[in-house]
């Protein structure tokens, strides 16, 4: 059995996760607690760490069964095949979230091509190059690990 990433319809991650568990399929939907501001109140809510993505641990024979679940769009593909995720990477996400219950990112002025040192988290101590900056995510290149990392930016209230 291997871990695979699946792409879900927007805002269906938790529902798909529950359906998978009810069908006896091992599923992981990493979530974080964030503060949301409404006009009359501030509330802490739990939301998926990766919007429209979750992970399943299945055999190759179960792939069609996963595709037929309501809310599942398809598997995430890499080089023409469903992308396999290493168990150690799933554990790294779990460990990170256990140690960092509420994640906030402060908006800073960075520029593409700038070198940065990662000071916290799984990649602490690594040097990275900012490749691209988007509205709510940033793409980093970690040359030492030969990785490209795209992380979503969550703003605190």
Rg over alpha carbons: 17 Å
Count of distinct structural domains: 2
Task: Quickly name the level 1 CATH class of the largest domain.
Answer: Alpha Beta
Q: Which range best describes the helical content: under 10%, 10-25%, 25-40%, 40-55%, 55-70% or over 70%?
A: 10-25%
In short:
The protein has 157 residues and is an alpha+beta fold. Helices cover 18% and strands 39% of the residues.
Describe it.
With 157 residues, the chain is α+β, with helices and mostly antiparallel strands. The protein folds into two domains: 2-99, NusG, N-terminal domain (Alpha-Beta Plaits, 2-Layer Sandwich); 115-152, no CATH class. The model has no long low-confidence stretch (mean pLDDT 84). The chain is globular and about 45 Å long. The chain contains three helices and 13 strands. It has helices spanning 13-22, 63-67, 87-99; strands spanning 2-8, 26-28, 31-37, 42-48, 53-58, 72-75, 77-78, 81-82, 84-85, 115-117, 127-133, 137-142, 147-152. Strands 1, 2, 5, 6 and 9 form a five-stranded antiparallel β-sheet that branches. Strands 10-11-12-13 form a four-stranded antiparallel β-sheet, with no helix packed on it. A two-stranded antiparallel sheet has the order 3-4.
């Amino acid at each position: 059995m291997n871990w695979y990433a699946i792409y879900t319809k927007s805002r269906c991650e938790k529902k798909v996760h529950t359906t998978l568990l009810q069908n006896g399929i091992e599923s992981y939907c990493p979530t974080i607690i964030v503060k949301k501001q409404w006009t009359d109140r501030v509330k802490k809510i739990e939301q998926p760490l990766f919007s429209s993505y979750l992970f399943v641990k299945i055999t190759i024979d179960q792939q069609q069964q996963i595709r037929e679940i309501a809310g599942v769009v398809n598997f995430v593909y890499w080089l023409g095949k469903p992308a396999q995720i290493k168990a150690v990477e799933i554990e790294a996400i779990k460990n990170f979230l256990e140690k960092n219950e509420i994640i906030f990112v402060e908006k800073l002025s960075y520029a593409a091509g700038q070198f940065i040192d990662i000071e916290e988290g799984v990649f602490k101590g690594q040097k990275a190059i900012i490749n691209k900056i988007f509205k709510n995510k940033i793409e980093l290149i970690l040359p030492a690990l030969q990785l490209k990392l795209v992380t979503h930016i969550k703003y605190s209230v």
